Amino acid sequence: MDDFGIIEMLDMQKALQEKYKDIWETISPEIGKNKLLWMIGEIGEVIDIIKKHGGDTASQDADLREHLVEELADVLMYFNDVLLCYGISAGELKQSYVSKFEKNMKRW
Predict the structure, then answer these.
(1) H or E stretch covering 49
(2) C-beta pairs of 23-28 under 8 Å, 24+ apart in sequence
(3) What pLDDT digit, counting tens, does each position of 38-86 carry?
(4) How far is CA 4 from its chain centroid?
(5) Is 61 exposed, middle or buried (0-12, 13-18, 19+ CB in 10 A)?
(6) d(Cα 78, Cα 94) in Å, to the nearest integer?
(7) C-alpha–C-alpha distance, residues 83 and 90, integer Å
(8) Structure confidence at residue 108 (pLDDT)
(9) In whole angstroms, what is the distance from residue 66 CA to residue 34 CA?
(10) Using 50, 70 and 90 to split pLDDT, how confident is the model at 2?
(11) Element containing residue 9 per DSSP (H, E)
């Protein structure tokens, strides 16, 4: 599982959404803002780990690193929920990402 891309993540997130459709909020543009807020909460958990232990320790201590990576996975799960809420495909995201990358490469 060296190459893990957006398409695979979106497929996995769709499977989670289907499994818990009777428990979780429905995926829709109206719910997108809630998913963004949950994602920000998960980003806060990542920041807390680094703030409390420092970046070097968080990346080198095996237990802290495992916790850091798990929280980053939570961030990505909510990120993928946001993509699903707004119907953004992997191709559309890639096109925009590449365009933004090219702009940034010419900035300074």
Answers:
(1) helix 29-53
(2) 27/81, 27/84, 27/85, 28/85
(3) 999 999 999 999 999 999 999 999 999 999 999 999 999 999 999 999 9
(4) 13
(5) middle
(6) 18
(7) 9
(8) 85
(9) 27
(10) confident
(11) helix 6-19
